[in-house]
Amino acid sequence: MPTQKAYKTGSSPPEPPAPGVLRLISMRFCPFAHRTRLVLAAKGIEYETVNVCTKSKPEWFFSINPLAKVPTLQHDGKVVYESLVCNEYLDRVFPGRKLLPEEPLEKARIGMLQAVWDAKIISNYMKTKRTEGEERQDAFKAFKEGLSFLEKALASGGKPFFGGDEPGFLDYSVCPFFERFETTLHGDLALTQAEFPKILGWKAAMFDRPEVKACGFDTATYAAVLANYDPDFGLSA
Ligand SMILES: N[C@@H](CCC(=O)N[C@@H](CS)C(=O)NCC(=O)O)C(=O)O
């Protein structure tokens, strides 16, 4: 695709992907699409990107994905959406390093940590962003209680990543949010070395990975897009 700019309401649809070409429909700053970009990079899968504006959606997007959410994959006439579903599909269909364990209990362990992430961690993080004072402190406490499950999982696994010696499925699904935590979790909401030694070591190791560096943006960019949604932020006119 010649442009990274987002298709918006009223735009003509792009040509369908050429046979054999994998297409990711994305939004440059979406943490869920970021999950899928990380998996594509980690597995060295070639793909093209079509960016859409998720606040002023192009009408044609609804005929590809009824939810019109990113990430959405188009692959040989098939459509796959929902970030975790996309990531499992990519892991199963494409060669390269396997990100999800085959062993049923190991796979269940990853799924359960993902459920803790959704129910206890990310929901309370979002709450810290829209509350103040005591309510915000309570949300941060609940966020840390959730995060302590991940801290324990890393400690008991005895490896740098949830996936073992290299990042796996869960590492890539939570990493985009850690990049965004940098915008608000500081000062009295900072994660401390005393409470989260494993998580902070994991974060440093993740942020040092080439695929993570290749897919992310800096904190100032996330903060600017958080303050003023613009899917084309940073692109020249
Ligand atoms: N559960 C979805 C969430 C995806 C999502 O909410 N993406 C946002 C952009 S960050 C979106 O497409 N929003 C448009 C909408 O909610 O209608 C997933 O994991 O893929």
From TrEMBL:
Q: Which PROSITE patterns match?
A: GST_CTER (PS50405), GST_NTER (PS50404)
* Xref: Pfam families: GST_C_2 (PF13410), GST_N_2 (PF13409)
E.C. no: 1.20.4.2, 1.8.5.1, 2.5.1.18
This protein's source sits in the domain of life called Eukaryota
GO terms under biological process: glutathione metabolic process
Q: Which reaction does it catalyse?
A: RX + glutathione = an S-substituted glutathione + a halide anion + H(+); methylarsonate + 2 glutathione + H(+) = methylarsonous acid + glutathione disulfide + H2O; L-dehydroascorbate + 2 glutathione = glutathione disulfide + L-ascorbate
One GO MF term on file is: glutathione dehydrogenase (ascorbate) activity
Q: Which InterPro entries match?
A: Glutathione-S-Trfase_C-like, Glutathione-S-Trfase_C_sf, Glutathione_S-Trfase, Glutathione_S-Trfase_N, GST_omega, GST_Omega/HSP26, Omega/Tau-like, Thioredoxin-like_sf
Q: What GO CC annotations are associated with the protein? A: cytoplasm
Q: Identify the residues that the record assigns to the GST C-terminal domain, covering every copy.
A: 103-233
Keyword flag Oxidoreductase: yes
Functionally, this protein is described as follows: Exhibits glutathione-dependent thiol transferase activity. Has high dehydroascorbate reductase activity and may contribute to the recycling of ascorbic acid. Participates in the biotransformation of inorganic arsenic and reduces monomethylarsonic acid (MMA).
Family of the protein in this entry: Belongs to the GST superfamily. Omega family.
Q: What is this protein called?
A: Glutathione S-transferase omega
